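Before the break, one more example. Copy the sequence into your notebook; we will annotate it together after we see the structure.
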Amino acid sequence: MVDLTRTLFCDTSGLHALVSARKRARAEGGDLLLVTAGAAIPRIFAITGLDQVFASFTSLEEALAHIPAVAGGAPHSDTSPGTSALPGISPDDAGA
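Here is what the structure looks like once it is written out:
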């Protein structure tokens, strides 16, 4: 999960990093969820067509509700810095 709520601009380097992180997450059976606020970042994703690729949510709570239960049956709810709810991807990989 990548929180972009305080991001005002994203260029091709940022888009490439997000696409690469999503590919790695999906290769490990996970996915990369985005949390966006305002209009700037969703507009960039719409212009590039990436809004059709990434699952995007307007709040952290909404995104967390879409994360499947982690092995063992308990939902993963640790959102402290340095944690990742996606298997096979660290926060550093996702740009968090």
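The two ends are 8 Å apart (CA to CA). The chain is about 35% helix and 10% strand. Try to locate both features in your own notes.
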